[in-house]
Model the fold of this input.
Amino acid sequence: MLLLVAAPMSLSAYDRAQAEADAALLRAYEEENRIFKDLKWHDTATNGQWIAFWTIQVLDVYSTHRGLKYACIREGNPLLPEVPSIPRMITHKTVFLAPYWLLQGEGVYTKQDLNFANILGTAVVYNNFKLWNDAKGRCTKR
Done:
């Protein structure tokens, strides 16, 4: 009895080749009728941008540490003490920059995202070096 049911089922079985052909036609139709055909939604960050990003982070810790050697300078980040140690600054950076590190190779961050982060980081590092340079002439060391 089971054999009689199985025989007709094999004749009307699922046609994989036809399903794949139909899926290809649907994809082509959707692409053809897409409204914003030439709009690039995701322009991933380059390796150069990532190198600049991590270099800026190192320069931030370095310039902050050098500036904090002077009594008239204190840390501006409210999440850190007034005079944080290097391990504390590195731990802080590690915790808050972990998403960048973990998702760096996944293509999540766009060129614009990293440009914004790099410009902001560059402004911070510039300010750190400026404060450090000004402190050399007018402040005493701790």
